[in-house]
Amino acid sequence: DAKTTQPNSMESNEEEPVHLPCNHSTISGTDYIHWYRQLPSQGPEYVIHGLTSNVNNRMASLAIAEDRKSSTLILHRATLRDAAVYYCILTSSSNTGKLIFGQGTTLQVKP
Amino acid sequence: EPEVTQTPSHQVTQMGQEVILRCVPISNHLYFYWYRQILGQKVEFLVSFYNNEISEKSEIFDDQFSVERPDGSNFTLKIRSTKLEDSAMYFCASSESGRNQPQHFGDGTRLSIL
Questions:
Q1: Is B44 helix (H, G, I), strand (E, B) or coil?
Q2: pLDDT for B89-108, tens place per residue?
Q3: Which listed site, A83, B30, B72, B93, has its alpha carbon 20 to 30 Å from B22?
Q4: How many degrees, rounded to 5, is the angle at CA B16 between CA B12 and CA B19?
Q5: CA-CA distance, B49 to B68, in Å (whole number)?
Q6: Inter-chain residue contact B108 with A93, CB threshold 8 Å
Q7: CB contact under 8 A, A46 and B103
Q8: What is the mean pLDDT of residues B14-23?
Q9: Number of C-alpha atoms within 13 angstroms, CB side, residue A67?
Q10: SS3 assignment, position B84
Q11: Is B91 exposed, middle or buried (0-12, 13-18, 19+ CB in 10 A)?
């Protein structure tokens, strides 16, 4: 399973944009990049995913580098509710869809 | 919005007893998963299930564990003889079409083994 590297923690101020980086230098051509988050005392929550092109949804944007060796999750305007652990996960067409969670990035949002 | 629901939210069981954790996946989903998270640790994959059979399992998912989809709506995880180290949050997830599609998680069952 291809691995990802994320910073352990990041801080942001409320109502400011947040850019959460992820490195995945061993990504293969058919691996998708997924982002999930886990709020305190809750199950993981799907945020966004993509293959090659940048993606936008109501929660966030995903910017994927041209060589696909890194990606950035963008929260356009952080709220206190966005304080969570954010996980960058690669999935492969060759496996069963299992998600391999790392330690993720703990995002603190200051009022 | 449809949700994955898990019951009970908290289960306390004596060591050595059997426990069944229940999940109702989203109704049109075809792929089902169990994960666990020991307090303070990473979320760990246990098993994936598709077309009424296990498609992949981790090393954690030994002979003490089993999964079943007894009817069209429930998906259960059974631990035959619980151990202290089975104490964890157990999360069920489902996805519409597996592999590279989003998984939707329940809020989990906290299992406490005494």
A1: strand
A2: 999 999 998 778 899 999 99
A3: A83
A4: 50
A5: 9
A6: no
A7: yes
A8: 97
A9: 6
A10: helix
A11: buried
